[in-house]
Amino acid sequence: MHRAACQRGWRVAAMLFAMQCGLVGCSDSSAQAAPRAPGPASAPAGAHASGAAATTPGIALASAARRQIGVTVSYDPAYVRLPYPGGDVPASRGVCTDVVIRALRAQHIDLQQRVHEDMRAHFAEYPKKWGLRGPDRNIDHRRVPNLQTWFERQGWSVPVTSRAADYRAGDLVTWMLPGNLPHIGIVSDRRTRPGGTPLIIHNIGRGTREEDILFVHTITGHYRPVLL
């Protein structure tokens, strides 16, 4: 698919997604799954790896996200009571944040526990978008603004730029979609072509996919996890 046509398809998909999800973030019990829309189902033909060593933490994180493709096949933002720690919704469904949560758990970072513990100790530092008076370990880690705050508090922030070369495999990127809907994805080790734009592994409403959307929407955050 021609890049311009692909971007138009994503804008339409994002607008429909935003209309259904409202302003509450990537996960909301009142929202419904976004409809399927045009767009590549996986890495475009001719995509290439970045050439980085397969053993680097960033490559490992991207690989953990890629393993979700074909497993997580739908978008489901319903509020669910989760076990703690290590709680998850069924692997066949989830929201954009679940791609990140599952990939980082494969690297021994449990965002459910980490975010909950930090919010319990520093609740005033987190966004007050949902009318909560205290942390909720079932949902807090599944909301993009909370993850952005936690990433910043870990010192993971790196500059947002328009240069493809500045985005490494395993980086986390957040966007604002039409309708003021926050979104998050993981930078892939594959690119549109050698030296081209990195692909993004994410769930924007059709399950986990690997697609060329890095610069399609307004980037609001860029984070580089410190993986020990």
Q: Could you please describe the fold and organization of this structure?
A:
It is a single chain. The chain has 228 residues and is α+β, with helices and mostly antiparallel strands. It has one domain. Helix content is 26%, strand content 16%. The protein contains 5 helices and 8 strands. It has helices at residues 3-21, 57-66, 96-105, 111-121, 144-153; strands spanning 48-49, 74-75, 93-94, 172-177, 181-191, 198-202, 209-211, 218-223. The strands form 2 sheets. Strands 1, 4, 5, 6, 7 and 8 form a 6-stranded antiparallel beta sheet that branches. A two-stranded parallel ribbon has the order 2-3. The longest helix is centred in the N-terminal third of the chain and has 19 residues, at 3-21. The relative contact order is 0.23. The model is unreliable at 5-9, 14-25 and 27-46 (pLDDT under 50).
Number of strands: 8
The tally of domains stands at 1
Task: Give the biggest beta sheet.
Answer: 6 strands, antiparallel
Which percent range describes the beta-strand content? Answer: 15-25%
Tell me the distance between the termini.
39 Å
Poorly predicted runs of 5 or more residues: 5-9, 14-25, 27-46
Secondary structure category: alpha+beta
Molecular shape:
globular
Mean pLDDT: 84
Residue share in helix: 25-40%
Rg over CA atoms, rounded to whole Å, is: 16 Å
Any descriptors?
228 residues, alpha+beta, two-stranded parallel sheet, 8 strands, globular
Short description:
The chain has 228 residues and is of the alpha+beta class. The protein contains five helices and eight strands; from the N terminus they run αβαββαααβββββ.
